[in-house]
Amino acid sequence: MAGRSPNPVSQTLSGEDNSRRAVERRLPGRARPAHDVLREYNEFNAKRRQRIPSILWIFVAPDPDGCYRWRVQLDCDCVTEVLTGGDDPPPSDHHWLDPVHQQRLPTGQLSCKHDDSPPAPYRQITERSDRREVSFPADPIEPPDWTDADTWAVVRRDKPHSKAFWTVALACGHVTEVPTDLTWKPTDGPRRVGPERQRKMTTEFEAFWATQPDGQSKQEQEHTRRMLADGWPMPRPEQLCYRCPDARLIVAYQRVGWLVPRKTLSTPPKQPSRAALQRRLERTQAEADRLRQQLAQLDTDKHANAAG
Ligand SMILES: [Zn+2]
Ligand SMILES: [Zn+2]
User: Could you report the predicted ipTM of this complex, rounded to two decimals?
Assistant: First the structure.
């Protein structure tokens, strides 16, 4: 989606705040042709159903006739279309998936990439939840593009190794993963360097910034200063948030309608009146009497024949 204005990082609001803030109104432009949207949904659904057991389709890959179309306007001014399961609640009340990072965004946010989006900001880690271990092979002998041979000789890992990856929530409401040593636990808290090492590191960084003013961006320099002042805590208490630059709030929405147009429902049969039910009962009783008489007549004839 193309940008129209300078793009600050979306202001982060809680879901309640955003659902109150988003308004239903007519949006500029027009909805996409219905048959295009339906075809794309069916193609997308056929693909995802290949890897989802059919018993779960109703929850995660539903038929198109339960999908409702909306046009939404984001706080970057872009207008796009979304589908929800059912026509309520509105899209500003949903947790949408960030398609790049495959993580749920806070309520009412959608990802919208702009060429002039700001760089990822640092955010405080507010919570750690899931942990998984990832094994890595030994690093290649040749240095990668981002470093020289001397540095690589120092940092290169010559044996396979493993890291723990923690799912963390950031102060902005976004979720990401950060690596730690396998042995580290949240109850350990961050490890810090001693006062002497802290002073030495600070002196070295001050010298680096003095001789190479462009050696670090302003944001990186501020992060480094916070780390130095705090005794270089590891794992770091703050993390770059790569969701923030593209996360936009839904500020308005417009109903488009069901993905599969609903047929006019036939009027349900009317409840019969008491008098009508009484008449039906009398007719049924009369019919039952007639059948009983017929049966009795058959029995009488049978006995008469047997006797004869
Ligand atoms: Zn946008
Ligand atoms: Zn964020």
Answer: 0.97
